[in-house]
C-alpha cells in the first residue's frame, strides 16, 4: 500500500507516519495484538485518522471483535473517502461476508485512488471470476500483465480470462506471445507441460485440429508435455476429429494403457463408425477381441452384455455370471441390474443363476454337475437370486432364499443387508432395521455397515437411535454425531434425517436439515474463491476450467434437488395451511410416542448443554489468534422454528428452486414444484411455462394432471380476470395444454378411465376432485378403489394415499390402514400407533442389548485383495 | 466399471465414498475438513495423479494422491497416497490395485517420482496386507502416535520403476 496521499486529514507527522507503516506490516504478518497497540498509539494523537481507524477495525475483526471492528471501519471511511486503503479494508470485510458484488464495488472505488496497485487488482480479478464477470476480468488481467509482464502467471491468467469470456482467438494469441518470451525451459517442467496442454486445448476448441495435433506431437517429442496419459487421450481425440487413419491405433494404445476405461472403448468404436445401437454385431466382434487381449479387464466383457442379444447374449452372460459367483463378487447384481430393462435379458440372468444354484447345491450329486461345487459359489448364487427376486418385488421368495443362505453361512453381512433391503421394499421398516443391525453386528468396525444400519433406523423413525450408531464413527469432541456429519458435509445423513423428521411430522427439524444441504452447496460455491488465484499460480489451468464449469452446474446434483423439492413442498403446505407452522402438528400420538418424544427432547437438550459446556471449557483464546475475516456460521435457529414460522414460506421455497429453473429442466418433479410455488407467488408466466415443459416430458404424469386442472380451475375462480399482458398469455398457454371447451370434471374422469389400474393415477384423480370441490365422501370412495385387486398398488404409493387422506381430514384413515395392513402382509407401515410403538421397542430391545461398541480403531476399509488372490486362480 | 482420472464433478461422490468408508478422517494429519477442500487442493496442485472408479456414474472407489513437497536437497521427488478407499459392496474386483497402479504410473511419468509412500494404521490388517502382499509396499518405519487418537502408523513405501 504505497503512494501516501497528502490530503490534510490524512497527514501524519513522521513519527506517526512510520507507526502507520509498522501497523501495515504488523497486519500483513497478522501480529494482531501489536498491531492494535500501534493503531491506538496513532489514534491517541489523531483520533480521526481514517486509514488508521480502518486498519484498527480490520485488526479487531480478525481478533473476533467483528461488530466493534466494522463500526470503526465505517467511521474510518467517512473520515477519508478518497483513500484507497479505507476502501480496500471495506472490500476485504465485505468479501468475508460473502458479499462479492459489494466487495467489488469497494475495490473499484479503491482502484480509483490507486490505479496500479497489484494487490487490489489481483483481488478484483478473483472477485470478478467469482461473479463470472468475464469482460471485466479480461481488463483486470490485461492491466496486471501490462504492469508485470515478467510474471509468467500473468500471461496464463490473461489467456484464461479471454477463454472464459468466450474469446478463444485472443486466448490463443496471448499463449503464442507468451511462449515466445520463454527461454531455456528445463525438461520435465510440470507447469510448462500443463501450459502447453492448455494451449492444445484452446486450439482444439477453436477447431484448429491439425495445428493442435502438431503442437501436441512436437511438445510430446521434446518431452515438454510430460503427462503421458493426457498426450494419448488428446491425440486419439484429435486424430478421430481429423478422420486420420492413425486414429484407430491411437485408441488401441489408450485401451492397452488402461483397459478398464470405458471412454476409450467408446472412443474406439465411434472412431470405427460403429454406433452401439445400430451395429451391435460388428461392435461385439471388436469387443470380443479386446476381451481376449485383456482377459482380466471387466469393461469389454460388460459392454458386450449391453450390446448382445439372443443366443449370443446367453453365451456371454453365462461365463460372466459364473466367474463372478465363483469369485464371490458382491456387486454382481448391481452390475447387471441395468440390463433388466430388457425382459429377455432379465429372464436369462434368472435362468443362469437358477441353474448355477442347482448345479452347486449341496443336494445335487457331484457327478451330474458340470461346474465347480464350491460351497461359496452356491452361497453367492443364493445371494444373487435373493437380490433378483427382491428387485422383482417377489419378497417372500427372496426371503426364503435368504433363509437358506443364512442357514448355510450365518456370518456374511451381505445376506443381512439384502434381507434388510427386501423387508424395506415390502414395507417392513422395523424388521429391515433389525436385519441391517444384524449385518452391522457382524463387523462393528465397518463404517459402511454402520452407515447403512443408521439409515435403516431413520427409515423406521428411530432417529436418536440412528444417531447413537453414527456416533461410533464421528468425532468424539463434536457437539453431536449429527453436528460432525453436517460439518463433514454428509449429504446422505442430512437428507435421511430430514426425511425422517418430515415423515414424523416434525417439519421444523426437516426444514432445518434441508437448509443444511443448501448450505453445503453454498459452501461449495464460496470455497472456489481461493482457487481463482491459487490454480493460476500453480498453472493447473485445465483442471481449473473444469472446476469452474462444475461450480456453474453445482446444484444439478441429485442431493440438492432432493432437498429443494422436499423443502419447497413443505413451504407450499405451510402457505396453504398456516396452522402447520404453529408447532404441534402431529395429531394422534400415543402415550408411548409422547414419552419417546419427551425423552428425545431431553436427550437433545442434554446434548446441547454438553456442547455449551464444552465450548465454555475450551481454553480462552489468546487475543493474538487470527479468526480470519469470514463470518463464522452461527446457528440462531437450532430447532428450525424460525424456518417453520417464516412469514414468507414461498420466498424461501423459491430461493431453493430458482437455480433449478436452468439446471434441472428435464426433471418433471422439479417443474411441478416450480408450478406449485410460482402459481402461489402469482408468477403466472413461470407457472404456465413449467406446466408446458412438464407436459412435453410426460403428458400422462399423475401429479401433472392435478396441476393442469388446478391451473384451469384457479383461473376460473379468480374474482377478476388476470390483467394483460400476463393473463391472456397464461390462458393461451393453458389452452394449448387443455382446450377450454372441455369440462374439468369430464377431463378428470377421462384420465381416471385411461389409467384405471394405476394407484398413482387414482390418487391423482382424487386429488383433482378435491381441487374441484368434490364432497369428501366422493373423494374417499375414489381413494378406496385403490384397494381393488386389479389396481397396482405398492407400499410407497399406499403411504402417499394415507397422507392425502390425513391431509383432507378424512375420518376413514384408520379404515384405510386396516385394509392396507391386511393387503401388505409383510409391511409394518400401516400398523396402529400402539402397535408401532411396540415395534419400535422390539427393534431396539432385541438389538441394542447386544449392540457392540466398535473395537479398535482401524477398520479394514480397503478391499481384501489377498482374498481375491486366493480365489482368482480358480476362476474362468 | 470405469477407471479414470478424477475430475471436479467427482468431488461430492468422492466425499460421500470417503465418509462411508473411512473411519475418522480427522485423524489424518494433513486432512482439511471437510474432505472436499483437501480434494480441491490436491486437484489444483497435482491434477493428474488422483483416480476414481465409477459404476454407472456412481463413485465406488478413489485414490487421492500428492507429491511430497518437503524433500531434502538432492533427493528425488516422491509421491504419497493421501487416501484410498473402495466401497464395501465393490470389493473383490481388484479396484484398489487398479487405482493404485494408475496413480503410480502418473507419478512416475509426470513427476519422475522415485517412490510412493503411505501411512496405515497398525491395527488395519486388511489394508496392510493389500499394500504389502498385493502391491509390494515395504514397511520402512513406525511413526509413533501418528493418528490423533494415539495409534501408531506404519510408514510404507514402494520404489517406482522408470523406463
TrEMBL record, chain A:
- Classification via PROSITE patterns: TPR
Per UniProt, the keywords (alphabetical) are: Receptor, Repeat, TPR repeat
Read off the SMART domains from this record.
Answer: TPR (SM00028)
**Signal peptide per UniProt:** none
Q: Respond yes or no to whether keyword ATP-binding is given for this record.
A: no
Q: Where does this protein have coiled-coil stretches?
A: none
Instruction: Mark out the compositionally biased spans (Basic and acidic residues).
Output: 603-612, 624-635, 867-876
TPR repeat residue numbers: 84-117
> Which superkingdom heads the taxonomic lineage of this protein's source?
Eukaryota
- Alphabetized Gene3D superfamilies for the sequence: 1.25.40.1010, 1.25.40.1040
Name one cellular component (GO) term.
NatA complex
Q: In its UniProt entry, what is this protein called?
A: NMDA receptor-regulated protein 1-domain-containing protein
Give the species: Lentinula detonsa
Automatic annotation (TrEMBL), chain B:
Q: Which domain of life is it from?
A: Eukaryota
Q: Which CDD domains match?
A: NAT_SF (cd04301)
Where is the N-acetyltransferase domain positioned along the sequence?
1-161
Q: Name one GO cellular component term.
A: NatA complex
Q: Which Gene3D superfamilies match?
A: 3.40.630.30
Mind telling me which InterPro entries this protein's record contains?
Acyl_CoA_acyltransferase (IPR016181), Ard1-like (IPR045047), GNAT_dom (IPR000182)
**An example molecular function term from Gene Ontology annotations:** protein N-terminal-serine acetyltransferase activity
Q: Identify the keywords attached in UniProt to this record, alphabetized.
A: Acyltransferase, Transferase
**The family this protein is said to belong to:** Belongs to the acetyltransferase family. ARD1 subfamily.
What is the protein named?
Acyl-CoA N-acyltransferase
Amino acid at each position: 500500500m504505497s503512494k501516501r496521499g497528502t490530503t490534510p486529514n490524512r497527514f501524519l507527522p513522521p513519527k506517526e507516519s512510520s507507526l502507520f507503516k509498522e501497523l501495515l506490516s504488523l497486519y500483513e504478518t497478522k501480529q494482531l495484538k501489536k498491531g492494535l497497540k500501534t493503531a491506538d498509539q496513532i489514534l491517541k494523537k489523531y483520533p480521526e485518522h481514517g486509514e488508521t481507524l480502518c486498519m484498527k477495525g480490520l485488526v479487531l475483526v480478525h481478533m473476533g471483535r467483528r461488530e466493534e471492528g466494522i463500526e470503526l471501519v465505517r467511521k474510518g471511511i467517512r473520515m477519508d473517502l478518497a483513500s484507497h486503503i479505507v476502501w480496500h479494508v471495506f472490500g476485504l470485510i465485505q468479501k468475508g461476508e460473502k458479499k462479492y458484488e459489494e466487495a467489488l464495488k469497494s475495490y473499484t472505488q479503491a482502484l480509483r485512488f490507486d490505479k496500479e496497485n497489484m494487490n487490489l487488482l489481483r483481488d478484483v480479478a478473483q472477485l470478478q471470476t467469482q461473479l463470472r464477470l468475464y469482460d471485466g476480468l479480461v481488463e483486470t488481467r490485461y492491466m496486471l500483465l501490462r504492469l508485470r509482464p515478467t510474471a509468467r502467471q500473468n500471461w496464463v491468467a490473461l489467456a484464461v480470462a479471454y477463454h472464459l469470456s468466450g474469446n478463444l482467438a485472443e486466448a490463443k494469441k496471448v499463449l503464442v506471445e507468451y511462449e515466445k518470451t520463454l527461454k531455456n525451459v528445463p525438461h520435465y517442467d510440470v507447469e510448462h507441460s500443463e501450459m502447453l496442454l492448455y494451449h492444445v486445448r484452446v486450439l482444439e476448441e477453436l477447431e484448429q485440429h491439425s495445428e493442435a495435433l502438431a503442437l501436441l506431437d512436437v511438445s510430446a517429442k521434446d518431452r515438454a508435455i510430460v503427462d503421458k496419459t493426457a498426450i494419448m487421450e488428446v491425440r486419439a481425440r484429435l486424430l478421430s476429429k481429423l478422420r486420420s487413419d492413425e486414429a484407430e491405433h491411437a485408441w488401441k494404445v489408450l485401451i492397452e494403457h488402461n483397459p478398464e476405461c470405458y471412454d476409450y472403448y467408446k472412443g474406439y468404436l465411434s472412431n470405427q463408425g460403429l454406433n452401439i445401437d445400430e451395429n451391435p454385431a460388428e461392435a461385439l466382434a471388436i469387443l470380443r477381441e479386446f476381451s481376449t487381449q485383456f482377459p482380466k479387464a471387466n469393461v469389454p466383457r460388460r459392454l458386450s452384455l449391453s450390446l448382445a442379444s439372443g443366443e449370443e447374449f446367453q453365451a456371454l452372460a453365462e461365463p460372466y455370471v459364473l466367474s463372478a459367483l465363483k469369485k464371490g463378487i458382491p456387486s454382481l447384481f448391481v452390475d447387471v441390474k441395468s440390463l433388466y430393462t430388457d425382459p429377455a435379458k432379465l429372464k436369462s440372468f434368472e435362468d443362469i443363476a437358477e441353474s448355477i444354484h442347482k448345479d452347486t447345491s449341496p443336494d445335487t450329486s457331484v457327478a451330474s454337475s458340470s461346474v465347480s461345487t464350491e460351497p461359496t459359489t452356491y452361497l453367492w448364487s443364493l445371494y444373487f437370486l435373493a437380490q433378483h427376486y427382491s428387485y422383482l418385488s417377489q419378497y417372500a421368495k427372496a426371503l426364503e432364499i435368504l433363509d437358506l443362505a443364512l442357514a448355510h453361512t450365518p456370518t456374511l453381512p451381505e445376506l443381512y443387508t439384502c434381507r434388510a433391503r427386501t423387508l424395506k421394499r415390502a414395507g417392513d421398516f422395523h424388521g429391515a432395521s433389525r436385519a441391517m443391525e444384524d449385518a452391522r453386528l457382524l463387523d462393528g468396525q465397518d463404517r459402511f455397515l454402520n452407515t447403512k444400519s443408521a439409515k435403516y433406523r431413520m427409515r423406521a423413525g428411530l432417529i436418536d437411535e440412528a444417531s447413537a450408531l453414527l456416533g461410533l464413527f464421528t468425532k468424539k469432541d463434536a457437539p453431536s454425531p449429527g453436528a460432525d456429519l453436517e460439518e463433514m458435509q454428509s449429504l446422505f445423513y442430512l437428507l435421511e434425517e430430514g426425511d425422517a423428521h418430515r415423515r414424523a411430522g416434525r417439519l421444523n427439524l426437516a426444514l432445518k436439515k434441508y437448509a443444511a444441504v443448501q448450505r453445503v452447496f453454498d459452501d461449495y460455491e464460496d470455497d472456489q474463491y481461493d482457487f481463482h488465484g491459487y490454480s493460476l499460480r500453480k498453472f493447473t489451468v485445465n483442471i481449473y476450467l473444469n472446476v469452474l464449469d462444475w461450480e456453474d452446474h453445482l446444484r444439478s446434483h441429485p442431493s440438492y434437488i432432493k432437498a429443494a423439492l422436499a423443502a419447497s413442498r413443505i413451504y407450499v403446505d405451510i402457505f396453504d395451511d398456516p396452522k402447520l407452522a404453529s408447532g404441534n402438528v402431529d395429531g394422534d400420538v400415543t402415550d408411548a410416542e409422547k414419552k419417546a418424544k419427551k425423552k428425545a427432547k431431553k436427550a437433545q437438550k442434554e446434548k446441547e448443554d454438553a456442547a455449551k459446556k464444552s465450548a465454555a471449557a475450551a481454553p480462552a483464546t489468546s487475543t493474538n489468534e487470527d479468526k480470519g475475516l469470514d463470518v463464522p456460521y452461527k446457528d440462531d435457529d437450532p430447532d428450525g422454528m424460525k424456518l417453520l414460522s417464516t412469514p414468507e414460506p414461498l420466498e424461501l421455497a423459491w430461493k431453493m428452486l430458482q437455480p433449478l429453473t436452468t439446471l434441472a429442466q428435464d426433471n418433471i418433479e422439479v417443474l411441478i414444484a416450480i408450478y406449485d410455488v410460482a402459481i402461489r407467488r402469482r408468477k403466472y408466466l413461470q407457472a404456465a411455462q413449467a406446466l408446458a415443459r412438464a407436459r412435453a416430458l410426460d403428458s400422462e404424469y399423475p401429479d401433472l394432471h392435478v396441476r393442469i386442472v388446478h391451473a384451469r380451475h384457479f383461473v376460473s375462480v379468480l374474482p377478476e380476470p388476470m390483467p394483460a399482458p400476463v393473463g391472456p398469455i397464461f390462458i393461451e398457454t393453458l389452452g394449448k395444454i387443455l382446450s377450454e371447451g372441455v369440462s374439468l370434471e369430464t377431463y378428470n374422469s377421462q384420465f381416471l378411465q385411461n389409467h384405471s389400474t394405476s394407484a398413482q393415477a387414482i390418487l391423482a384423480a382424487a386429488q383433482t376432485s378435491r381441487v374441484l370441490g368434490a364432497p369428501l365422501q366422493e373423494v374417499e370412495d375414489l381413494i378406496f378403489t385403490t384397494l381393488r385387486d386389479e389396481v397396482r398398488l405398492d407400499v410407497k404409493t399406499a403411504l402417499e394415499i394415507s397422507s392425502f387422506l390425513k391431509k383432507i381430514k378424512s375420518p376413514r384413515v384408520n379404515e384405510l390402514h386396516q385394509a392396507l395392513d391386511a393387503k401388505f402382509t409383510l409391511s409394518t407401515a400401516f400398523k396402529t400407533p400402539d402397535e408401532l410403538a411396540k415395534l419400535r421397542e422390539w427393534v431396539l430391545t432385541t438389538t441394542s442389548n447386544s449392540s457392540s461398541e466398535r473395537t479398535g480403531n482401524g477398520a479394514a476399509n480397503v478391499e481384501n485383495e489377498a482374498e481375491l488372490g486366493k480365489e482368482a486362480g480358480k476362476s474362468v | 466399471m470405469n477407471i479414470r482420472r478424477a475430475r471436479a464433478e467427482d468431488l461430492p461422490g468422492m466425499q460421500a465414498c470417503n465418509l462411508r468408508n473411512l473411519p475418522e478422517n480427522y485423524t489424518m494429519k494433513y486432512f482439511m475438513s471437510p474432505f472436499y477442500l483437501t480434494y480441491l487442493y490436491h486437484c489444483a496442485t497435482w491434477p493428474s495423479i488422483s483416480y476414481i472408479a465409477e459404476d454407472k456414474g456412481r463413485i465406488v472407489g478413489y485414490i487421492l494422491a500428492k507429491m511430497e513437497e518437503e524433500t531434502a536437497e538432492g533427493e528425488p521427488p516422491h509421491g504419497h497416497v493421501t487416501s484410498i478407499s473402495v466401497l464395501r459392496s465393490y470389493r473383490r474386483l481388484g479396484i484398489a490395485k487398479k487405482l493404485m497402479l494408475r496413480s503410480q504410473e502418473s507419478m512416475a511419468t509426470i513427476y519422475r517420482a522415485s517412490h510412493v509412500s503411505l501411512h496405515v494404521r497398525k491395527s488395519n490388517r486388511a489394508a496392510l496386507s493389500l499394500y504389502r502382499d498385493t502391491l509390494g509396499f515395504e514397511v520402512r518405519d513406525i511413526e509413533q502416535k501418528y493418528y490423533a487418537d494415539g495409534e501408531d502408523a506404519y510408514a510404507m513405501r514402494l520404489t517406482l520403476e522408470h523406463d
